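If you are new to this repository, start here. Below is one unmodified record pulled from the training split, so you can see the exact layout before writing a loader.
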Amino acid sequence: MPILTIIQNNTRTQLAFEGTPRLRDVLIGGGFAVSSPCGGKGTCGKCTVQTESGKTLLSCQTILQGDLTVILPDTADAVIETSDVSAPHLGFFGAAVDVGTTTVVCKVFAPDGACVGERSCLNPQRAFASDVIGRIDASLRGNSDALQRQITDCIADLLNQTGYADQVTRMVVTGNTAMLYLLTGRCPASIARAPFVSETLFGETLPVLRIETFLPPCMDAFVGADITCAVLASGMTKTREISLLCDIGTNGELALWKNGVLYVTSTAAGPAFEGAEISSGCGGIVGAVDRVYAANGRVYAHTIGDKPVIGICGSGLIDAVAAFLQTGQIDETGAIDTETLPLTAHGKTVTLTQGDIRAVQLAKAAIAAGIELLLAASGTSAEEVARVCLAGGFGNKLSVESAVQIGLLPRAFLHKTVPIGNAALAGAVMLLSDEQAKQKAAQVARLSRHVQLGGNAEFNEKFVDHMMF
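And here is the target side for that same chain:
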């Protein structure tokens, strides 16, 4: 039987296979995550791997016909920042987990409430697709067990890395509605097609890895438990001021608090803000461009770790577009004045293409139109919003000035916007440590009023308007 040998993290793993399968399928079956934003169609070029001899292969298009050795990037290269969240006295070992579409974060707490371990990694389900819709589709095509196994194995691995896996007796696992469907192995058919009414909104306790686990309540099919937790952690529903929470990522989720009502919506921004579907895009890893600025007509780039540039992550992408707009190399329609736009750091260069700029336009138009429609549904002007909270890893690094310059956020938000880090995880910790917080989370969900954007003609019009810079 032929053997596929995988070299990663200085370890060799051998997988036997039969027939002539795709390289990508064998990697996924063996528990190895290979980024595949296009879902294995061969169009994104993100699932390339190197052979031991130095040859580059597109794993979703490579048919295995015999023994092969490939080299995958070390998983330790990822630089994922987590929030500084703590818990009061627990009386048990507990874990809070945020299953994001891109990132999975885990914190373990001792009985006295001290955080004794935290680990994070990229969501291995990205091997199937970079976005929620792609993963739902993969589940419906017979991959439900594989998707569930990927995320449960991932959580188990993170717990093991903390050294306290055997002592954890309770968990809270939060995430968007689709992520919780995939975690629990439920069929996501109800959220895959109109009228997109989820068969369950969770808010229940069940075993995960044989650990008593609470899954917080979701608000809608595409406004999940992560936003319930983020709203809870932000404290926005405790005040009388009009507040907006934005979790800007692959699935942009928005929540506006006004007069005792929580208006919520979601908009499919796509994975551009996470670095996917961008020709030189990557996650927040060492060597990724994370900051860009223009000065004296030139554009300068900074990389994570001050290392030679290898790609560009979400925050750097927004900065770059803003900088190139400032120098005039991108015009208001999104057209660029050269074939590519270079970003150089420490002697290496990556480029942005016209297609990359169009991807940013599509993503930012979806978020901007979503914000405008949410404001309209609540009868609120941008100027009336007193506080804007940016949740999530991307929001934590996002330059508000750049976001305003490219039209991602209204100019009225410029001096009202604050990053609040991984608020979803912070809310999960609250639920882990305070039984009354579960009632508060349920109340937050009950206060929500969903604003439907899908099939909304006005949203389509606003979307087109916001395509311009």
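Two things worth knowing about this chain: The chain has eleven helices and 22 strands. Residues 76-83 have pLDDT under 50 and may be disordered.
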